[in-house]
Amino acid sequence: MRPAEKGQAIALTNIMHAAKGHWGYDPQDMQEFRDHWKITPEMIDKDPILVISEEEHLIGFARVLKESTEVALLDCLFVLPEAHGKGHGAWLLEGAEEIAKRMQCTQLRLESDANAAPFYAHHGYHSTSNRPSAFQGAGPIEHMQKDLTPQIHEVSEIDLKLDVAATWDFATHNSEAIKANWQTLISDNPDLWDGKVLSLYQYSFENAQFTGELVEINYSEFLAWRDWGFPDRSAKNLFGCTVLRSREGHLVFGKMAGNTATAGQVYPPGGNLDLNDITPSGEVDIFGSIARELEEETGFTLDQGDLGEVLAIEDGPRLAIARILTLQLSSNEILSKISHFNANQEKPELEEAVIITSPEDLKAYRVPPYAIALTAHLLN
């Protein structure tokens, strides 16, 4: 899954017409549809359009528009009829939801014909109203909507284990493409290193207890999965982070440096689980990871403040475990100490620290959805 290119406009229009015609609508209605509904290069340039390809052949696309501060519109989602039933529509829908959340929208709405409405209902959309279809003999057009706010849980106990016998089918089946993607990444950023990280493939929440099983993968495999729109939807990026709170109650996030794989993004200090987090008994110590990442990025340690609640944030392909740490320092004092720490690092992971006094402060930055939800949870 990739952003569309302007040169793909005709191919996307053809997909739209083929997918719509699959339902056997009246020929005259379909001709009017083909005459009036097209994807243009200007549309691709203006608003996000995701495309799915299979062996370089385009098979589907989705377009998302931002309607208001809180609401995005899924303007269209089409998959070629011969590619139906393979999960491509669900993958595109999740990609569209990711775009909407990156726009800092909490609702995604759409208008669905009667044939597609059960698909959207299956993926959590509910009807708010309907209107007659312009097509003869067709059922009503359903106005549907979904809340995109990541789910936040309080956690009292965490039990994570590494499954040493497990392998990742996604990595096995796409090894050559992953190698090519990695070469592109390191040509742009030679500081990236293909170490071992851990991916979550099975988990549960019950009575504030979080349990999960992880598999060992290469960082290049993780980045390919991320860059291609999370094609294995059963995998999750589980990671830990520390939410620094100042004496005034503000939050302090980090803006990632250009030598990292998330350059320019703003979020709480944290990172992927890796082999350093595995205990001799095979358990995965996510709190050890949280402590290590905090010190590596900011110079602070967990014993320098008051530890608060532990939260789990479910955010599509991401699952963050956040530990709250309140420092008896002002926001500016925290920024000063992080700046001093970074000045003494050869290649600091943070470009700068950022004070967050309200959710509105995030609108100036590129922020992953889980961090937006966490900010709203803690500051609203």
Q: How would you explain this protein's 3D organization?
A:
The protein is an alpha+beta fold and 380 residues long. The chain contains 11 helices and 18 strands. Helix content is 30%, strand content 32%. Strands 8, 12, 13, 14, 15, 16, 17 and 18 form an 8-stranded mixed sheet that branches. A 7-stranded mixed sheet has the order 1-2-3-4-5-7-6. Helix 4 links the parallel strand 4 and strand 5. Helix 7 packs across helix 8. Keywords: Acyltransferase, Transferase. InterPro entries: Acyl_CoA_acyltransferase (IPR016181), Bact_Acetyltransf (IPR050832), GNAT_dom (IPR000182), NUDIX_hydrolase-like_dom_sf (IPR015797), NUDIX_hydrolase_dom (IPR000086). This is GNAT family N-acetyltransferase.
List keywords for this structure.
380 residues; alpha+beta; Aminopeptidase; Nucleoside Triphosphate Pyrophosphohydrolase; seven-stranded mixed beta sheet
Topology of this protein?
Blueprint: E1 2-3, H1 9-21, H2 27-36, H3 41-46, E2 49-54, E3 57-66, E4 71-79, H4 88-102, E5 107-112, H5 117-122, E6 126-131, E7 141-147, E8 151-154, E9 157-162, H6 169-173, H7 175-188, E10 196-206, E11 209-218, H8 219-227, E12 237-245, E13 251-256, E14 266-267, E15 270-272, H9 286-298, E16 306-315, E17 318-326, H10 331-343, E18 350-356, H11 369-379
Parallel strand pairs: 4-5, 9-11, 12-17
Antiparallel strand pairs: 1-2, 2-3, 3-4, 5-7, 6-7, 8-16, 10-11, 12-13, 12-15, 13-14, 13-18, 16-17
